[in-house]
Every structure is written in structure tokens, then in C-alpha cells.
Amino acid sequence: MTFPATAGADHDLGHSAVQRARELVEPVLRDRVDRLGPSLGGIGRYHFGWRSDGTGATGKGIRPALAVLAAEAVGGTARDAVPAAVAVELVHNFSLIHDDIIDNDDLRRGRPAVWKEHGVPAAILVGDALHTEAFGALLGSGHPNASAAALRLATAMREVVVGQVDDIGFTTRPWTGEQAVRIAEYQSMAEAKTGALLAFAAAGGALLGGADAAVADCFDRLGRHLGLAFQCTDDVLGIWGDPARTGKPVFGDLREGKRTLPVIAALTAGVPASERLGALFERGVRSDFELRLAADLVEEAGGREFAEGEAARHLAEVDSCLASLAMPAETRAAFDSLAQSLIGRSR
Amino acid sequence: MTFPATAGADHDLGHSAVQRARELVEPVLRDRVDRLGPSLGGIGRYHFGWRSDGTGATGKGIRPALAVLAAEAVGGTARDAVPAAVAVELVHNFSLIHDDIIDNDDLRRGRPAVWKEHGVPAAILVGDALHTEAFGALLGSGHPNASAAALRLATAMREVVVGQVDDIGFTTRPWTGEQAVRIAEYQSMAEAKTGALLAFAAAGGALLGGADAAVADCFDRLGRHLGLAFQCTDDVLGIWGDPARTGKPVFGDLREGKRTLPVIAALTAGVPASERLGALFERGVRSDFELRLAADLVEEAGGREFAEGEAARHLAEVDSCLASLAMPAETRAAFDSLAQSLIGRSR
Predict the structure, then answer these.
(1) Has the keyword Phosphoprotein been applied to this entry (chains A, B) (predicted)?
(2) What was the ipTM of the complex prediction?
């Protein structure tokens, strides 16, 4: 995966895949949400930002675009991928709604989160409804590969939930010593929490485009590596990203005590800065001075370099997956561009 | 459906269907819960009451038994029905775990509810995991009708969630006037909340037993009417049931201000007792004297008789569904007996 300095054309290809997916997916998605009836459907429409006046922010739409491109890569059409694209948007949003309750996050896409606006019971129930609707969207399509895709969705959602549980569990672990979070544990968690759903988007789209299981597995790997590349990059941005571009507070992840890859890599590097960082976290990082010191120690211990290296390694794996699949040059370029808009976001 | 005074033999048949289903289902169910990993799997095992010492109360197992009997009724084996029986147990328990958060219920099966023991985040996540595992259990079976069954499961779960939302919404409505809950609304809610999952158990079991869609539809109707008969009976027991046998406080549903069928029927009967009852509820029913007065007014206005009549009508529909299907006499007797143990429970 290369990020050319003049990425205008590639970027437009990715944008166009997102745009094409959105135009195909949104009417079907709206229909699914409408099936939840006036009360729950209204809460669903609130979450998706579909207001009667046409305003409101929706998600980036990377996942449905990935499903559409995967279908096209294997010789199918964008329309073939729609049930998988709709399903992945439904489960992604179900996860967001439940995660906002769990993480006590008040805001989502610049608006009050569902639980904040409509209460926890409504947020639990609308999440459950979107979850089940995802299986309905796939299985109701009547596509001969819908059942195989739905089984992959069930497996992916198990991973997502288990990954979320592991991520929460990390926050209660000590910073140093035998019980501290190890790099391999972080990688499993990130693959499950972030990679599995991108893997489903790609493999599900490929299956509905007519791929067999072996080709779908290749798209699954592509999605996983894309998810891991994204997570590694997001972890770097969570410490050193420009708040004006990321929309997150400076040193945000350090302030929240998140066990992200740069931090775990720095703590386990076995260099003097590792020990100083561990001692600092154990005392508690509160002031802006301490936050900056922690960020500097993570960098000094090689945590930033390690995470950036991992992001590059996963992107190379994405490249290698794409190279192993014969596909039209335009589709290939659109994949590169989509990856760029996912990884390069906020930079 | 008849309830013979000497129901010993029939009761044993139903018991044996429950027992057979439990023996087939439990190992598969345990395997599904184990797939959630040590942390989430442990919470799942807590909910199901599977303790290392072998103690703990599990559910009644009516739904898996219904799936098994439906498969046998159409010429399949009990083993054929297992993926549907496992799926229905998984989603039923997912609903219980989430409902206990929503309803703020501290106890489930005599133990602290999952959210009370492990916290709301863990309870949300383990519910989500069981939900997705249900689709995995069905679709992973490789049964040629698994996809059709899973689509019915998705539709049923939408109904369950919408029914739950409607039931919650009823509690905020006025007792009398234009905005009061109508009998037809109650019936839709009860069919969705209680009937849809029993409908899936029966239709899913039939499909895996080899039935076509038309026969599965007949089992779907059977399950719906069984669910409605159960709900009407449960509503009567919720006011007039013997606390020693129901395990619920006397006049429990009246105390909680639940919009149950006897109450709605009494309020909308248009007799003098209806008006007195409406005025009493609007003022608020608090003391034991007022609770007894409310129960008497519900009965005087014909609410109890109406609900009992509805239960009988739905049981007659169950009978008519069963009569329309050719099946071994023993299976038919086991269905009657299962219905009896569902409807006749706590009496």
C-alpha cells in the first residue's frame, strides 16, 4: 500500500466507492430500520442521523464500501453486495449504541448518544433490534451464499464482543509485572474488536459477488489486516494526533489510561524508559506535564516506532492479499484508496 | 386441548419431551457458551446456573421441547431439531439477561441477575454474545433448512424486541380515555413478546425435521397461540394466583401497575365497575385494601372472565393446529402435555 503525495485521483476512487455503496445501501438500511415500528424505528433513525430535515451526520461508510469493492473484485456487481453491506452497517451501529452505554460515552457523531437521549433501556433494545435485523437483511436476500455469509457474520460478532470484553478487562490490569497486558494479547483483542467486522465486510461482499469459501477467506485476511493497520494508526493518533484533525483531546488515550499498542510496546521494551514509564503510570498520570512526559517516554522506549511499524506491516499484508487476487485495475486502485481513507483519516 | 383430572400419564409425556430435549441440547449449549472464552463464558455459565458443583437452577426448557416435538411430528428425529432448540434457548436467555437490566430486576431463578452480579456492561455484552451465537448454532449446523429457520429467528427476534418496547410504552399511557391501551394493542404486544419465540421454536423444529414452509407456518401459528394462551393465563395468575404456587407476591401485577389483559378488558368494558376501576387507578393503588378493591372491580367488570376466555380460545386454536397435522398419537399426546405444563404451571 503506497500513499502517493498526490493522491487526488486515488482518493476520488475510494470516495466514489463509499458514495456508490451509500447510495445503494441507505434505502435498504432505512427500510430495515422502519420495520422496527414507530417507536424503536424513530430511535434508530435518530442514531443514524436521518432527520426529517435531511441534516445529521452519519458514519464514514468504509465497511459497506469494502463489501461493494470485494463483490466487484470477484466479478460480481455492487448491487450483489448490498445485503452484506447493509448487514455490516447494522451490526456496526448496534455495537456503537451498546458500546456508548458500556463506555459511558455521552456523544456520538456530535450528537447525544442514544442512551443519553432516549435512556439505557431504549438503547439496549434498539441495539438488539439492529443486531437481529442484520441477519434478517442477509438471510432475507435469498442469495445462494447468504447463509454462508450470515454464518461468518455470527462468528465475526462473537469476536467483536469478546474483543470488547478483553479491551475492558485490560483497564483493570496492572501496568507492569507478570499481570500486565502483553503485545500478543493486545493483537488478539484488536484483531477481534476491529479486524473481525472489516473481515466480514470484505468476505461477505466477496461471497455475495460469487466467490467461493477459499477466495472469501483471502478477503477475510485482507479485512483483518486492514482493521489492525487502522487500530495501530489510531493508537498512534490517540497520543500524538493533532486534536484539530482527530477531533480528540491531546494525549487523550494517555489521559484515559488506555492500554494501546505504543504504550504496551514501550512498557515491555525492557529499556530504561520502560521502567520510568511503568513507575509513572503506576503513580498515576494527571497533569499536562506528566502526560507530555509519558508521551515522550513511550516514544523514547520505541513504542511509537513499533506501532507505526506494525501499521506498515499490516498494510503490506493487505497489499499482498490484494496482489494474490486477480481484479480489474480500477477496483484495485479503489481498494488502495479506501485503505488510505481509513488509515490516513485525520492525518 | 383438554386437561384431564388424571393427567399423570400425559404429564409424564411432556416431562419426557422436556427431559429428552434437555439431554440433547445442554451439551451443545454448553459448547456454544464455552466458545465465548473464559471471561464472558464464565458469566454465561453463571446465568445458565451451570456451576462446577453441579447445582443451580436452569430454565423450564419448554421451548427446546417444543422444537423437538415439532421435528418428530413431521417425521424427523429429536436430534434433527437440536440446532433450533439450542438457538431458541440462546435467544430466550439473551432476552432474559437484557430484560433484567431494563426492568431493574435483581433476581433471576433465585440468584442475583447477571447485571446485579457482574455489572451492566458485562450483562449487555453476554446477552449480545448469546444472541449472535444463536444464529451461529443454527447456520453452523449445515442443515439444508438452517437458513430458512435462521430467517424466521431474525423475524421472531424483531417481534420480541418490538413487543418489549410496546410493553414498556404501555406503562406511560393513561389508564382511561383516548390514549389508554386497547385490547387489540395488548394482543399484538403479547403475540410479539411471548408468542413469536414459541412460534420460532415450533416452526424451526419442524423445518429441521424436514417440513416445508407451509407446514412450518402451521407450527408457527401453534406456537403463537400457545404463547398467547400462556400470557392470558399468566396475567390471571398475576392478580389472583396463589403466591405460594406462583412465587409472585399477591396482586403483584396490580401493585406494579401493569397493563395486563384482565385490567385492560375491565377498563374498556363500559360497565359501572370500569369507571370506578379507572378512577381508582388514576388516583393510584397503594394499600392492600385498594389492591383488593381493584382486583374485585377487575373481576366485576368481567376482566378475569374475558382473559380466561381468551386463554381457552387460544388453546382451542392450538388444538385446531395440532388436529390439522398428521402425527403419531404419542407425539400428539406429548404436545398436549407440554401445553398443559406451560399453561397449567403454578396452578
Answers:
(1) no
(2) 0.91
